Amino acid sequence: MWLPIRLEGETWEEMAARDSCFSSGHQAIDIVVVGGGVAGLATALALHRIGLKTLVLERSDCLRASGTALILWDNAWKALDALGVADTLRADYCLLDGIRGFSNCSGVQKDVPLNRGFSNCSGVRKYVPLIKDRTGRSSMYCLESRCVERSVLLETLAKALPDGSIRFNSKLVSINKEAGSPFTTLELADRTFITAKIVIGCDGVNSVVAPWIGLEAAKPSGRVAIRGMATLTEGHRYTVEKKMVQIVGKEVRAGFIPCTDQKVYWFITRKSQPQDADVSRDPEILRCAALEAVRDFPGPIGEFIKSSPADTLSLADIKVRWFWPWEWDSKAKGRGSVTLLGDALHPMMPDLGQGASSAMEDAVVLARCLSHLNLNFENINWREKQERRIEECFREYAAARKWRVLGISGGAFVAGNVMDGYSSFLRFLREWAWLPFISMSYITYFAASDCGNLPLQSTPTHAHQI
Known about the structure:
Elements: H1 12-18, H2 20-23, E1 26-34, H3 38-49, E2 55-57, E3 69-72, H4 74-83, H5 86-90, E4 98-103, E5 109-113, E6 118-121, E7 124-127, E8 146-149, H6 150-159, E9 166-167, E10 172-176, E11 184-188, E12 193-201, H7 209-213, E13 219-231, E14 243-248, E15 252-258, E16 263-271, H8 276-279, H9 283-293, H10 301-306, E17 314-320, H11 325-332, E18 338-340, H12 355-371, H13 384-420, H14 424-438, H15 441-447
Parallel strand pairs: 1-2, 1-12, 2-9, 4-14, 12-18
Antiparallel strand pairs: 3-8, 4-5, 6-7, 10-11, 11-12, 13-16, 13-17, 14-15, 15-16
Helix pairs in contact: 3-6, 3-12, 4-12, 11-13, 12-13, 13-14
């Protein structure tokens, strides 16, 4: 594999002009982020905020709108505050007042409040932490939580990036690193080669970067998620409270969350079935499958399914990748100057609603670790010494995220299996212990976290439209 040679005192641009092979199909980039989803754009923006320029490689021809909506808990809003875009999103999405859990088997219902610490002042809802714990941090009853359309979140992150930060139609097909070289070469589907000093894989559960690092492919959990977005008309007969509602039954669970006054995001989780591959191809068949899954459930969930445009319906396998605590440090740090974050590193079950939130936490923590290095990316003598410093930085990042990620992954696994009630024992546990005593507070436990701020060197005023 060809790698460019940078001469003493030569800039990247001068090297490109000198080497005809390089200029005809090879490029040199300091930092490459693979994947233009929530994790990738959040990472690029976090690095931009500390003054580091990145190139995001997105395989699609535009920002991907798949996924319908995302529940963003308090920890996600703290990450978005650090990224400088939280207020842009707050204005358009309703603040949730609480979480409600209801058993269709026993009739047990439990409510958990979320925002007792929010008050309405002059028509604007402001955060006022009324309850604090011994450390002075706000309690779980002062948690900012909203359900946000995925496409809007992506657009907001992308618009905060400088012009030219995202390259579409850029599908990564292979990664190569010559022995003794501090550079990593990425090959794209169009036969373009990019040589980078740092590569950050944010390419999701089916990551191309992850196997190169040495991670096993994410494995199916045996569960699927059906999702959609209902659009409510003026004459709709249900008044939707500003709560996340979950209804549990026998081997199935459904829920819904209002995004705005007109849009409600809903979801269903159940066991995988042999016909799922065929069902997912036809939106109307998928709609019928969703209605069949909740046919005995009370409330408006059935109406929401019927009111959802066909292009919002989706069915996805839930995949996971497990790490034992003793193997996390060696695997999560990456390989050399290549690392992972978000679903590319730790795909998890959706039962805590922490997938996107934890990815944005990853992005802030990684950027903060890189800011400590004070690396000069124009250094003409970029050698193994610089790569070792980056590798040490990635090790610091992995250590900082270890117990947080393992806790969320483990918590989501336990919550998902108990709440879905796949056996008589689990349903007994759910009805007589989990719902009455733990209720839905397990969700707020993981939401009450703060990934911290960034040492800002760039602000949103420097951002450009894409």
